[in-house]
Write a structure and sequence with these properties.
445 residues, mainly alpha, disordered N terminus
């Protein structure tokens, strides 16, 4: 009888989402579900290991690095998805482009952050920023791009494995440090994190090469795709701005304890959004197929609405769960994080808002109108910076929470407004730039 119920559930999921997409969703959701458990343990352990002040110091530096790390690969992973998904024979040169772009630009960004970090991060050691930059701009960017390679071939099990690999490795080293040291500072943790990120990147390199072959380096391809890659990088960077600029500002103002409180709540919001992101990651190739149709945006908009009917319900359920279970936080990570309960309750509607952001944004990207998505994101980033400049000095993390709520809500509304408006405009009258679905991977802090 149990087997019949399991078979029936799988059948319903395949009917609802489509066979291959259902399988990919299951793989990603399973991987991210396990990652969810690992992240939960990781957050608890790292909070106890560092404490509110050192945790706030760490996340302030990490947020600043995250904003610029999007440029380290210049969108090469997304370019791979765009051009190799329909033509697998182009794998070698675009695989080489990932390595060439990330190793070159990532190194430049590490050196740049080493020079400018003393100017915008007061009280944060330069070596902390440099180590984080190596972990994110080089190792992290390479690992993300390599997971996108498997995504292009619709081998979502490996995309899930690569995501889980880094999370589990960081969780393991954090548990070891807590048992061995009981307490650590931010620099000690970052040294351990860099070691883990490097090992995960090497494992991913071996996995990609063994499955698909060696890269071919063509500098001319890098120059040819640089502008398109820059659009992807700017779009990813604007997402990081309205997600992370508040944490960087809190660090800049020396509010490190408040930063730790706020970031703990914000990372739980990111965990609550995982099921929605899993569905959209699996649906990603379908947006391009729908977008290739004659009616373009109309087709992607219909598909986005179909997904939204499911993801909005998941978003509401996540919001309710986060609100109800928020009081558990200080029991898990320590009394110093007690204010995170209120912060999480303020932020809990965000998963619901993100269901609207992802569905509308992916509809635009799948129809080749990434420029419109980018415009909405840039306006959201500018509004978020403006609100935080006013609110954070006056209200600390409360102001950051209010700005995040307003930004995420308005971005969802603005993206769907653009989709609704543009689908009524003749295709010849619109500006179409090559687009792709963007999935920002939050720094696990």
């Amino acid at each position: 009888m149990a087997a019949i119920h399991i078979h029936s559930a799988r059948a319903r999921l395949r009917i609802a989402l489509g066979g291959t997409m259902a399988k990919n969703t299951i793989w990603i959701f399973a991987g991210q579900g396990l990652s969810l458990v690992a992240q939960a343990v990781y957050f608890i352990v790292i909070a106890r290991l560092l404490g509110t002040f050192q945790y706030g110091l760490f996340v302030g530096a990490a947020a600043s690095v995250s904003i610029v790390s999007q440029y380290s690969s210049l969108g090469s992973g997304l370019l791979f998805l765009r051009y190799v998904s329909p033509d697998h024979a182009r794998f070698p040169e675009y695989w080489g482009n990932i390595l060439l772009s990330t190793l070159t630009l990532g190194t430049v960004l590490v050196l740049l952050l080493a020079v400018v970090s003393p100017w915008f991060l007061h009280g944060v050691a330069m070596r902390l920023v440099v180590l984080l930059a190596i972990a994110e701009c080089i190792c992290g960017s390479l690992t993300i791009a390599m997971s996108q390679i498997f995504q292009a071939f619709e081998k979502m099990r490996y995309t899930a494995i690569l995501s889980l690999l880094t999370t589990c490795a960081r969780m393991s080293i954090a548990v070891f440090m807590l048992i061995a040291m009981h307490h650590a500072n931010a620099t000690q943790w970052v040294i351990a994190s860099v070691s883990v990120s490097s090992a995960a990147t090497i494992a991913a390199l071996i996995l990609v090469t063994s499955h698909f072959g060696r890269p071919r380096f063509e500098p001319r391809l890098f120059l040819q795709r640089a502008y398109e890659g820059l659009i992807f990088a700017v779009s990813g960077s604007t997402t990081s701005v309205y997600n992370d600029v508040d944490k960087a500002m809190l660090a800049h103002l020396g509010m490190n304890a408040a930063n730790g409180i706020y970031t703990m709540a914000y990372r739980l919001i990111d965990i609550g959004t995982i099921p929605i992101r899993s569905i959209h990651a699996a649906a990603f190739p379908r947006f391009f197929r729908h977008g290739a149709a004659a009616d373009g945006l109309r087709a992607t908009e219909q598909f986005a609405r179909k997904l939204l009917r499911k993801t909005s319900i998941i978003g509401l359920a996540a919001a309710a769960g986060l609100f109800l279970f928020a009081p558990i936080i200080p029991h898990l990570v320590g009394k110093g994080f007690a204010p995170s309960v209120l912060a999480l309750r303020w932020l809990c509607p965000i998963p619901f808002f993100r269901a609207f952001q992802l569905s509308a944004g992916d509809a635009l990207a799948g129809a080749g109108k990434q420029s419109w998505r980018l415009a909405a994101q840039m306006l959201a980033a500018a509004a978020n910076v403006g609100m935080n400049l006013y609110l954070i000095p006056r209200y600390s993390w409360h102001g950051a929470a209010w700005a995040s709520l307003a930004t995420d809500g308005l971005l969802g509304v603005s993206l769907w407004s653009v989709v609704t408006w543009m689908k009524h405009i003749p295709q010849a009258a619109t500006i179409a730039l090559p687009g792709i679905t963007l999935y920002d991977v939050e720094a696990e802090i």
